[in-house]
Amino acid sequence: MNFDLSGLPIVPKIMVIIGIALAVHLFVIVVRHLVGVMLSSQKTKRYRKLQSLSTIATSTLMFALYFLTIGFILREFGVSLSAYLASASVIGLAIGFGSQGVVQDVVSGLTFIFSDLVDVGDLVKVSGETGVVRAITMRFIQLENSYGAKVFIPNRTVSTLVNYPKGYIRSIADVTLTGPEKQRKKMHEAALIAMQNTYEQYPGILMRAPSEVGRVKLKSGKEILRMKFRIWPDRTDPIEKFFKEEVTAELTKVDANYKGWMISISYEAEQRITPAKRLLWGWGQNAKA
Questions:
Q1: Number of C-alpha atoms within 13 angstroms, CB side, residue 37?
Q2: What is the pLDDT along the chain (289 residues), one digit of tens a residue?
Q3: What does DSSP assign to residue 80?
Q4: What pTM was estimated for this model as a whole?
Q5: CATH superfamily of 169-268
Q6: CB 135 within 8 A of CB 48
Q7: Domain ranges of the chain
Q8: Alpha carbons 85 and 68: distance in angstroms, whole number
Q9: Among 33, 69, 79, 81, who pairs with 74 as Cys (CB 3.0-4.6 Å)?
Q10: Residue 68, Ramachandran bin (φ over 0: left; ψ between -120 and 50: alpha; else beta)
Q11: CATH number given to 109-165+271-281
Q12: Rounded to the nearest 5°, which phi and psi values hold at 148?
């Protein structure tokens, strides 16, 4: 790359320099877009990991391109490229001593990816924030929470990470059925209507459509109707309040003695919890808890 701008007037020279900078910037944008397009259609864990790595790789590429562009531009003004690289190394070393937090962010970000703790697309809880991982960069984990807001968490501040491999937590609702079979059928139908109403009213919190597991006869002789919801972690209000209250109100119309305590709600999830020390130093260990 050898541009001779010495014979140009100052204004054209500035225009050429700006053009070079814009061309580099456009190139980086195109590379990032192409990587995103190639990987976005792939849903397997392998390609999600490549997508995670691509965010760090493109960030590194952007820095390298901008750094070299500045060097070539300065060379046209008589600054030696080798002197520029040497001074940049000294300055970078000095900044490194004063920016240890940045180094920790980079190391932690790489650890997250290569230790198979988290990938783009995972539903996780990190430092008290719950959301879907949209990017893992050299400095931040970017989440999108249930409100659609973007949350940026510095990599070095992650102390505990909870990964929900299925992308949700399961909420199991057991509705006690009482009385003769005809009355139980009415209760069954009313509970299913309430289940559907809850899903339609809270589509952003319920990750998938709820399902009916079926009627279960317990050893005690009690019969329950079991339903399954798939919801965002920490967003249990639609089930605890809206669904339970609506079912109780509807079943009271069928059985005047029906009470809210006759409906039980439980939660279960497959998750991985990893302490911070194992995030940073557990390279040779099995990092999955």
A1: 6
A2: 455 555 666 667 667 767 777 777 777 777 667 766 665 555 555 555 566 666 666 666 677 777 777 776 776 666 676 776 666 665 555 455 445 555 666 666 667 666 667 777 888 888 888 988 888 777 788 899 888 899 998 887 887 888 887 888 899 999 999 999 999 999 999 999 999 999 999 888 888 899 999 999 999 889 999 999 999 888 888 898 899 999 999 999 999 999 999 999 998 865 444 444 444 434 333 333 3
A3: -
A4: 0.58
A5: EIF_2_alpha (3.30.70.1130)
A6: no
A7: 10-98, 109-165+271-281, 169-268
A8: 9
A9: 79
A10: alpha
A11: 2.30.30.60
A12: 85, 5
**Structural tokens at position 6:** 């010495």
Tokens of 28: 């980086």
CATH of 10-98, one of 1.10.287, 3.30.1490, 3.30.1950, 2.40.160: 1.10.287
Q: How far, in whole angstroms, is CA 287 from its chain's centroid? A: 19
Task: Name residue, tokens 């792939």.
Answer: 42
Among all chains, which residue has been given the structure tokens 């783009």? 120
